[in-house]
Amino acid sequence: MEDSGTSTALIPLLERISLDADDATSRRVDLPDGSRVWLVGDYDDARTVLTDPRFSADDQIPGYPCLLPAPPRPGALSFLRMDAPQHGRVRRVLTPSFTMRRIEKMRPGIEDATRRLIEDMREEGPPVDLVDRFALPLPSLVICQLLGVPYEDHGAFQEHSRAFLSTDGTAEEATAALTALGDYIRTLALRRRTEPADDLLSTAVQQQEAAGMTDEDVVAMARLLLIAGHETTANMLGLSVLTLFEHPDQLSALRRDPALVKPAVEELLRHHSIVRTALGRVALADVLLPGGRTVRAGEGVVLGIKRANQDDRFLTGPGGDGVDIHREVRGHLSFGYGMHQCIGQTLARLELQVALTELLRAFPGLRAACPLEDIRVRHTAVILGLHTLPVAW
Ligand code: HEM
Predict the structure, then answer these.
(1) Does the Cβ of 157 fall within 6 Å of ligand 1?
(2) 2-146+232-385 topology per CATH
């Protein structure tokens, strides 16, 4: 697996520092924009930063680390970048739609969509790019249905999402992509005011007044869901299949015992930690972290999720610091922690479990259609993924 690299200095730097074997503790690092921030790679320190209200997720507060190519305008990333109590008011509009019970009801639809994509792959015949034909369409179809976005528009919204998160383009391109996505969603939201449907966009429109949200807040919330709902799961799915190819013993074990899919998904989430260094916070007061470092008011923090997920507590059993789908991983930080912990995690887990199960069942001989060394890792900003994954069966 080769790192394709990116043109912006920010990402390789963050990637390097978060993977550096010596950075198990929390320490100060320089960002390419000249700012000096804390890189928190220690597990307990990371959980403190993510739960202590003296750390803010508001990217408009001076000192918040600049982690995206284009620093978003106020409110652009909705409740992802809000603190209590405003965060809870907005997030609560969505929470009833993401309970275990509600997500479990989506299982038959997700299974259907998965099987249809598999049939299309079969029809096309090998080699097929698994990223383009399976890993990206599946979560996109699911989030479209949940949110109420026509899937026919996937070409445009996938492109805009990538442009917003990409480190290869300019800040202007990233801002333009975010604006274009907003314009697209605004049109859909307007229609929901007169023609409500059974989807999250309609829920948001109906509850916007009670939640104290403006029209633009609704647009930002739906846009956040659209971006977060497909890009992350798609990347995770491609990487999961690649990792199984890289570990044939584990692939065979999963084929023999499909019940292993739950621990396997959890371990793969922990192992890849695809958000890497995408989480930032800024201190509102001086805070002494459990590891002994003091973060001063106004100082920025970048969470080293990959490093925190390599804490000794996870590396039990024969797998050591590699991948071991047999171990029961609990408490990893791949979905974050605390009040911003991923609202879509139950859905993401379900999609990943269904996708891997159906894929392995449908193609007993599934394998990479090129040497594994040729497969390139893609950094979309600070989220890890694959460009392509050619497969045969
Ligand atoms: C493998 C897939 C996924 C991963 C690894 C992931 C990761 C994360 C992480 C680490 C956070 C915390 C951010 C922070 O604390 O700053 C987060 C938040 C969030 N995620 Fe996910 N996510 C995934 C899938 C999804 C899906 C499927 C959806 C929507 C359907 C979603 C929607 C969100 C939203 C709206 C937030 C903001 C929550 C808040 O601020 O309260 N994510 N995600």
Answers:
(1) no
(2) Cytochrome p450 (1.10.630)
